[in-house]
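Reader question, answered in our methods column.
A reader sent in the components of a multi-part assembly and asked whether the whole thing could be modeled at once rather than chain by chain. We filled in our standard form and ran it. Here is what they sent:
COMPLEX SIZE: two components
ENTRIES:
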Amino acid sequence: MEPWNLQPAHDTGLTPSERFRSVRRESGLLESLAHQVCFSLLRSYFAIGHRLTIVGREKLPPHGPFVLAANHCSHLDALALGAALTPRHRERAFPIAAGDVFFHTRVTSTFSAIMLNALPMWRKNCGPHALADLRRKLQEERAIFIIFPEGGRSRNGSMMPFKHGLGMLVAETNVPVVPCGLGGTFEALPPERNIPRPVAITLAIGDPLQFPSTANDRTGWSQIAKSVESRVRDLVGQSRTA
Amino acid sequence: MSEITRERLFGFRHAFDDPVTVVLTLTALALFLLAPVLILVATRAANSTSDKRKELWDRYRSWIWLALFILVPVLAGAFWTILAVATLSFLCYREYARITGLFRERTISLIVVIGILFIAFAALDNWYRLFVALFPLTVALIAIGGLIPDQPKGYIQRVGLGVLGFALFGSALGNLGYMANDWNYRPILLLIVFAVELNDIFAYICGHLFGHRKFVPNTSPNKTVGGAFGAIALTTPLVAVGAHFIWSGTALDTPVRLLGLGIIVSIVGQFGDLMLSSIKRDLGLKDTSKLIPGHGGILDRFDSLILVAPAVFHYVNYFVGFAVGQPQQIFSGWQI
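And here is the structure of the entire assembly that came back:
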């Protein structure tokens, strides 16, 4: 018989508000139930309100870890990607959201953590340690990250160049990056609007990419960003013509 | 539902029928009014640092919330009391599951949570046979639930942790809720909670005054033999006097039996404290969470109560019985 292996929750020792804002957060039974309910409601909303069409869903790996990388031009993007995941995926799915928007106050951070299972990315003072924590979480907890490598929402709907952060998460690992192209979210909810229009949305999912031999340095991160960006651009075009 | 049952469950007008309830509530209020003065005097006399002062005030503020969490439901009625005990069970189980890692075993955690819900229902329903059947049945369900992942590796650990979690926070703490089926449950519950919390304070004070020899240095280095015996010496008469007024004229109302109850509360309370110290030391943790400012987690605060609840329940049940003459199966007894 092997000795017992007791592993306290990684967020042990944090106050409730610190926990909601921490990437070490691990969901319990009630929070998992809240995520499942929230994602199910989102799925119904996107199916009815935006006639969400998903092309290439079979390309999603059966389980984590993997990263969904998509273009970003609307607050609907992360929700649409979350709605595309199967119930089995949702348990470990974490949208990586802007800390200064979604985790600014206690109310927004509680909602983002409990309902969306989001993890914060602080854009102004995001150091390498924040990405190192995410990289560790991705592999150790077999997580699924929903990320937008442009680093922010496009204000005019056209894609911006991808940043290095994605590469820092997956370089020299076998973690697949699944490129995704979203079409219609900008028309449904552009940055200046508060209420979405009932516009059709299409999500095109591409073949997973892996970067086990790409160096975990600035050159490697740049290569990964370019490679994924090019795939996402193709998929965005595909989603707009679908 | 009979009028008697409705009054017991929701009849807050009877809150202060028993003099022991009045005395304990007033004592608690007096302590809360006196505490700020004591804190001010003590911190000034000791020239405490601002961190120390903040910690003391945090503790005081948390104690007010904890006292309200205990006093309001107990005074409001048995329904609210059972609901509060079930909430306490869930919060304690949540902390236990998170520090042991059991929360990652979703099936077992769900079974324990359902078990706690059923315990609360059995207490609310005054259905004793269901109440005692729930422990073996839930253990069986946990043993079955542990098979679902089809992973023999770690089976004993996840099932063992699940059974211990349900035994402590569902079954043992559930006895507190079941006590609310007694018509005179208010002074009983208040006396137990009051005595257990004072027992901790007595042990701490006596330990500082007379504590020379360490009690269990590997488990809890600050506990001393002097503190343990001091707590027994002070808590026992307190419980015995309170119990004398509560169970006046019953089979329990003899000096030996009343002192026996006091000794049980004090000794078992201290063992509950040591049990949690052992669990935390085994895991290398200081506190079970940071939910209550100045105290740590819910478990850190209520650890002494966990083992006292079943010990007192069965001791009193042996001599007097709980819920004597109260209607049973209040909700489930309706014939279809």
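What stands out: The beta strands of chain A are 53-55, 66-70, 93-98, 119-121, 144-147, 173-183, 202-205, 209-211. Residues 28 and 156 of chain A are 39 Å apart (CA to CA).
Send us your own complexes using the same form.
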